[in-house]
Specification:
Elements lengths: L5 E6 L29 H7 L10 E6 L3 H7 L8 E4 L5 H15 L4 E6 L2 E3 L2 H16 L4 E6 L10 E9 L7 E7 L4 H9 L3 E11 H11 L1 H8 L10 H8 L8 H6 L5 E6 L3 E3 L3 H7 L8 E4 L2 E4 L5 E4 L5 E4 L4 E6 L2 E6 L6 H5 L3
Parallel strand pairs: 1-2, 1-4, 2-3, 6-10, 12-14, 13-15, 14-16
Antiparallel strand pairs: 4-9, 5-11, 6-9, 7-8, 7-9, 8-10, 16-17
């Protein structure tokens, strides 16, 4: 199978409300230079697939209000590869839409689907693993998901239970999935990480276009009929109008529930390339270099005095001095300043809705 049939789908429609005030409805985290490296999370996502997928085979699915930001940040992407959801309907309708849209253009497409807001610290190993998986799915009816090796009892991720008793005949790194597990409580997470066959679910999927389209036909017949019926108009000026009309009819359902938990030929490739789902300020703190007192700082001129274990993100301020805090988030954006205990960060969404 030629690399020319490899396609990348980046899902970039989320709001990132747990990263308020940096991430807002107007400018969600995937469009922000969260790490202070001069590239947004969306741009970093595209960068790490360099050499795996041709530039002309990159697709971004996003919400209508973010199309202009995608165009600004990925200016060399074909404009008609930015697919615009008229409303939020979770990952299954998003993946169904882009799958049929790609099928209309390339019936032999081999696809990797990724969120736009994760980070990877070893892109070389990442490319190796993804390329191996694309080779595996190119001429089989397998669905492959990437399983991240666990390093702590994390309650913010779903888990994959793998059958490690025998690997796939075609690739010794790929195993069958026994089951998918919801985000666990702390006790359950502690049990999971004691066993070597539980992995974090990174939400990165690899399949060929026939496999995923057939899976939708079997497990989500209503949704599949809808997107199948639009085959004649994909790529024409009627496409957006029809998507605006029909997309809101789709169930609000994740691809995990819609397909992954039902399908037969589901495999996992356990991997370790420094992956993190940047879902919260706490996860950003874990990924950022810290001083000897455990403080992580992203900003131009930050001075910490008698402070420990803090996450400071103040990229717009000329000078910031913080004294006497332990275990706090200090984050500002435009006209908003948040000072919040890291241990209470699950309340940030609630804070963001206060007037």
């Amino acid at each position: 199978m030629s690399r020319n049939n490899n396609h990348l789908v980046i899902m970039a429609g989320g709001v990132g409300s747990r990263f308020w005030p940096m991430s807002t409805e107007e400018t969600p985290k995937q469009f922000i230079d969260v790490l202070g490296v001069g590239r947004s999370l969306l741009q970093l996502t595209r960068d790490r697939f360099e050499s795996v997928v041709p530039h002309d085979n990159i697709w971004v699915v996003t919400n209508r209000k973010y199309v202009h930001m995608v165009q600004q940040q990925l200016p060399d992407m074909p404009t008609n590869h930015i697919l615009c959801e008229p409303c939020r309907r979770n990952t299954a309708p998003c993946i169904a839409y882009v799958s049929w849209r790609i099928k209309a253009q390339d019936p032999k497409a081999n696809i990797v689907v990724t969120p736009s807001d994760h980070i990877v610290t070893d892109p070389v190993e990442f490319r190796r693993v993804v390329s191996e998986c694309l080779d595996f799915t190119a001429d089989s009816d397998a669905i492959v998901t990437l399983g991240m090796k666990t390093s702590r009892p994390e309650t913010g991720y779903g888990y994959i239970q793998a059958d490690l008793s025998s690997s796939s005949l075609r690739n010794k790194e790929i195993f069958r999935v026994d089951s998918f597990k919801e985000k666990p409580d702390l006790e359950t997470a502690k049990q999971y990480i004691k066993k070597n066959y539980y992995f974090w679910n990174a939400g990165i999927f690899i399949w060929n276009v026939s496999t995923i389209v057939n899976a939708f036909r079997v497990y989500q017949p209503v949704m599949s009929k809808l997107f199948e019926s639009l085959l004649p108009i994909y790529g024409t000026e009627k496409e957006q109008e029809e998507i605006d009309r029909t997309f809101p009819e789709c169930d609000n359902i994740s691809v995990d529930y819609a397909i992954m938990e039902k399908a037969e030929e589901i495999f996992v490739c356990p991997a370790d390339f420094g992956w993190s789902d940047l879902g919260t300020w706490g996860s950003l703190q874990m990924q950022t270099r810290k001083d000897i007192y455990g403080n992580a700082c992203i900003g131009n001129n930050i001075t910490l005095v008698e402070s420990h274990n803090c996450m400071i993100h103040t990229t717009q301020e000329k000078k910031v001095v913080v004294q006497g805090l332990d275990g706090y988030i200090v984050a500002e954006n435009n006209d908003t300043l948040l000072i919040c205990k890291l241990s209470e960060e699950q309340r940030i969404k609630q804070f963001s809705e206060m007037n």
